[in-house]
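**User:** You know discrete backbone vocabularies at least as well as I do. Would you mind producing a protein record, from residues through to fold? Write it directly below this note and I will take it from there.

**Assistant:**
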Amino acid sequence: MKKISIIIPAYNEEKFIKETLKRVIKANTLGLTKEIIIINDGSTDKTLHVLKKIKKDKRVKIISNNKNQGKGSAIKKGLLLSNGNIVIIQDADLEYDPKDYVLLIAPFLEKKADVVYGSRFISGQPHRVLYFWHYVVNIFLTGLSNILTNLNLTDMETGYKAFKGNIIRSIAPNLESKRFGFESEITAKIAKIKNIRIYEVGISYQGRTYEEGKKINWIDGLKNLIDIILFNLFR
């Protein structure tokens, strides 16, 4: 393995995108060359302006949608443009720390894994204490997903997922979720691949409040519930 693709969907992240990119560029990827793909998903703040002012780096590609299409659509676009042997999804808000890349990458380099999920619930790493009911909903959705996929994940909804490039790019053209349903859909689809090797590693988590810009809400939780049933039973 020689290259890792890091896909960063960004919507109205003017406060965080510069620091996110700085940390991603600096992050240890265990000798793998980085390909960084940022999808500015129709931001209405100064996200694109900030990106244009950042010093150019040949490893960084910036794609900009004229209108907001949703996180799932942005990730799909990034996946189709990627060519790394490993692909990682990186949120632009720094809830997930690029320092944890070494944890996500190691199972691939040890030739143990085809997919790695970064779990917030099996980690001894620091976690910011926030919303109890978000935690309850995450546990419920993960449990329902596990029932239907026959997996024993602890954190299906995690934003840190890593894949072998050839596997995720074979799935990407058929991805349907436009918003936060990507997590449910991709889990359902990889679970159906024969002999797939899925690992979990504990990661740190710096959650943010709604005042700080958190976007997911109870409506998205309900949609994810529907997506888990839809993609496991009817696709």
Remarks:
- Residues 132-149 form the longest helix (18 residues).
- Residues 171 and 189 are 8 Å apart (CA to CA).
- The mean pLDDT is 92.
